[in-house]
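Bumping my old thread because nobody answered last time. Still need a sequence for this structure:
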């Protein structure tokens, strides 16, 4: 008979201890001896404060031990905690690492999250092909969200190959055969006059057919229409009910609109920043940039029931900024410029302010001018400062005029000429093309 590594004495001691100890002590002993289920249960207790003082860091430690022992479910939790910064410093790259370990253990939820990470380039270099492969695994495991996302990606790729007339004909044929997504596409086309004569009544007919099949996006569109009185008599209560139905079914757009309703206290809902943040978070985790920004703004200001949380705000500003949102880029740069809740980093501030400024964000242009004037994160350059102040002044920032006049006094004629030339070149480079100007 093979002897335990504890030895007979150790086993007798452990058995006696298990009899004498409380349930929590026994659970802790089993977890320390390597029981994965016990490690996960102990982690849950620390997270929930059940029988012990709530301690998210200790919860994370036990989840990590279980994940390191090969539990795909624990690895999924560890990934989520790295993503949200719960009990551990936020680290998107480590989140992806643990999503991958969980996904390789055949956890379908992890396969979906990993696929989304590769599609969006969140915590890992963007790789749509790899993202689709993981979505296919999650879909094959029977995860409805992965199946729907994969179907949407496939349909979008196929439709993109067609010209507008062919695309409309294909959508009509699919809609006539009962495809709810095609019905919704037709509804939007008729309601907006995109590629077809404007016909709101016909658009509503297709919209209602799609919503009648419980298509979450169609239900969301119908709810928003009632909420705003767009194409239907305004009925905020009905609109909110439909939005909640769609949001609970996973529609990111509905989750965002429901967040808006709680933030503003519309549709018969009380103003509730915490509920608003919860719905924004659900949509933000699906990659909806508007929700990522809205959530970051709520967390930056804080309010009754929703504590200010700059670490989480920074995370969501960054997520939106990486998708190209100029407001998020400006706000992220400003956080780093001020050192508000994050370590001040002038170089990072300039990086994000420049991205926003290049998109025409006048506040970012003014702050970038100040950085060049003071040499914060860049070498001092009054000529470059003048250029950014001039662009922001002409864009409507009232703070830029006095700054422009002040720096102009420090320029000699050659520098002034160079500054004007740079501003002219920037405007020429960023002038809208004929198609944009016609819109």
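Sorry it took so long. Here it is:
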């Amino acid at each position: 008979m093979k002897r335990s590594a504890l030895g007979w004495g150790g086993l007798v001691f452990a058995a006696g201890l298990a009899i004498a100890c409380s349930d929590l002590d026994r659970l802790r002993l089993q977890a320390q001896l390597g029981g994965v289920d016990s490690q996960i249960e102990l982690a849950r207790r620390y997270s929930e404060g059940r029988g012990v003082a709530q301690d998210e860091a200790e919860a994370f430690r036990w989840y990590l031990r279980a994940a390191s022992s090969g539990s795909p479910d624990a690895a999924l939790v560890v990934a989520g905690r790295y993503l949200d910064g719960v009990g551990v410093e936020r680290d998107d790259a480590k989140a992806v690492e643990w999503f991958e370990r969980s996904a390789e253990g055949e956890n379908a939820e992890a396969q979906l999250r990993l696929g989304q990470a590769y599609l969006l380039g969140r915590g890992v270099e963007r790789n749509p092909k790899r993202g689709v492969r993981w979505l296919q695994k999650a879909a094959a495991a029977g995860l409805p969200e992965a199946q729907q996302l994969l179907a949407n990606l496939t349909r979008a790729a196929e439709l993109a190959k067609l010209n507008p007339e062919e695309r409309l004909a294909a959508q009509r044929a699919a809609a006539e055969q009962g495809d709810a997504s095609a019905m919704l596409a037709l509804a939007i086309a008729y309601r907006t006059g995109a590629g077809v004569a404007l016909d709101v009544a016909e658009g509503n007919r297709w919209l209602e057919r799609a919503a009648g099949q419980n298509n979450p996006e169609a239900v969301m569109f119908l709810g928003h229409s009632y909420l705003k009185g767009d194409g239907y008599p305004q009925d905020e209560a009905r609109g909110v009910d439909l939005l909640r139905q769609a949001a609970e079914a996973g529609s990111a757009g509905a989750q965002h609109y429901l967040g808006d309703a709680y933030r503003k206290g519309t549709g018969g809902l009380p103003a509730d920043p915490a509920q608003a943040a919860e719905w924004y978070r659900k949509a933000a985790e699906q990659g909806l940039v508007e929700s990522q920004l809205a959530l970051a703004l709520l967390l930056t200001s804080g309010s009754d029931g929703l504590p200010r949380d700059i670490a989480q705000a920074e995370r969501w500003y960054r997520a939106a900024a990486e998708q190209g949102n100029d407001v998020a880029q400006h706000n992220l740069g400003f956080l780093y410029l001020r050192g508000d809740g994050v370590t001040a980093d002038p170089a990072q501030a300039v990086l994000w302010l420049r991205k926003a400024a290049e998109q025409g964000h006048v506040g970012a242009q003014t702050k970038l001018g100040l950085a060049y004037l003071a040499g914060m994160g860049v070498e001092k350059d009054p000529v470059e400062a003048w250029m950014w102040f001039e662009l922001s002044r002409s864009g409507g920032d009232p703070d830029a005029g006095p700054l422009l006049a002040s720096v102009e006094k420090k320029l000699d004629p050659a520098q002034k000429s160079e500054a004007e030339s740079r501003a002219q070149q920037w405007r020429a480079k960023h002038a809208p093309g004929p198609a944009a100007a016609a819109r």
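The chain has a mean pLDDT of 89. Let me know if any region looks off to you.
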